[in-house]
Amino acid sequence: MTLVCLIPDPERLTAVAERLSLWQSDPWVGHLHPGDLGWHSSVGAEQMAADLRVWERDGQPLAIGMVDGPAVLRMAVDPEAAEDREVAERIAVDLDQRATGREAVIEARGATALRKALRGAGWVEDEPWTPMTMELTTPLDLTRLDQARLRIVDAGPDTASDWAGVHWSSFRGTPFDDDSRSRFVDRWAQIINGPFADRAHSLIAYDADGSPVAVTTVWTAGPGRPGLVEPMGVHRERHGKGYGVAITLAGARTLQRHGASSVVVAAENSNPAALATYRAGAMIRTCGWRSAR
């Protein structure tokens, strides 16, 4: 049967995430993870579904893509189809048609045949990202977490404002006024109440003064599979104290308690601070690639 590209109904979001979970394994190649869907779900279920592309053959998904911004598609291909040239060429034609007349980025890490097909169609490599991993099958070294002397709590509705404030400071750095706080907390609520909420574990780190200083959300793909860090941030006024490493280790500990085989993340090579934080947390780099046109 012909490979077809579909936009799923919102009711299928959980099923799409389940399928994507089955494609996560060690060593992790850095492709789309159910946690990426979870973090993106702050837009609401309807828009979340509209941002997905599922390539199916005989009713079985072989590739899943998520629109992440106006010109970025983040993808995962079923590992059993990663070398399938016919599947790759069909997807590449779809992607080429959708990108006609404008610059676009396709993140296709791990999709060997698709990467080759994209190159053959004229796509070129863009700025690389580096997948990083920490295995969780042995006891974690939590020395850096203990040394930071932080109080780690699970974030919930009563602490959503604290979580949002640290994230805002880390990634935006602009004043967090009441309107911005309300909008961001509402979007965070979409995540923790959405179709992927059972995969999420959000953490806040408080210092000795009771101030929130670092946050993360980690996402499970099921027992025995890699769990994702997405996102991790430290308040911009608290950099240089080891809090990024500490909250990353706290996230790893949470994933280990929920049966994850490893904790993974993909970081931009152009962001040395993030790479250094993850390395200091005992994460090691694997190979990375990102294609663009």
Protein model, in words:
The chain is α+β, with helices and mostly antiparallel strands and 293 residues long. It has two domains: 4-129, Gcn5-related N-acetyltransferase (GNAT) (Aminopeptidase, 3-Layer(aba) Sandwich), CATH 3.40.630; 133-287, Aminopeptidase (3-Layer(aba) Sandwich). Helix content is 35%, strand content 25%. It contains ten helices and 14 strands. A seven-stranded mixed β-sheet has the order 1-2-3-4-5-14-6, sandwiched between helices. A seven-stranded mixed β-sheet has the order 8-9-10-11-12-7-13, with helices on both faces. A hairpin with a 5-residue loop joins strand 9 (200-206) and strand 10 (212-219). The two termini are 30 Å apart. The model has no long low-confidence stretch (mean pLDDT 90).
What is this structure, in a nutshell?
This protein has 293 residues and is α+β, with helices and mostly antiparallel strands. It is built from ten helices and 14 strands.
Key descriptive features of the protein:
Aminopeptidase, 10 helices, alpha+beta, seven-stranded mixed β-sheet, 14 strands, 293 residues, 2 domains
Summarize the main sheet: 7 strands, mixed
Class by helix and strand content? Answer: alpha+beta
Mean pLDDT: 90
Percent helix, as a range, is 25-40%
Q: How many distinct helices?
A: 10
Q: CATH topology of the largest domain, what is it called?
A: Aminopeptidase
Number of strands: 14
The total tally of domains equals 2
Question: Can you tell me the residue ranges where pLDDT is under 50 for at least 5 consecutive residues?
Answer: none
CATH architecture of the largest domain: 3-Layer(aba) Sandwich
Strand content: 25-35%
Order of helices and strands: EHHHEEEHEHEEHEHHEEEHEHEE
General shape: globular
N- and C-termini, Cα separation: 30 Å
What is the CATH superfamily of the largest domain?
A: Gcn5-related N-acetyltransferase (GNAT)
Widest beta sheet: strand line-up: 1-2-3-4-5-14-6
CATH class call of the largest domain: Alpha Beta
Task: Please state the CA-atom Rg, rounded to the nearest Å.
Answer: 19 Å
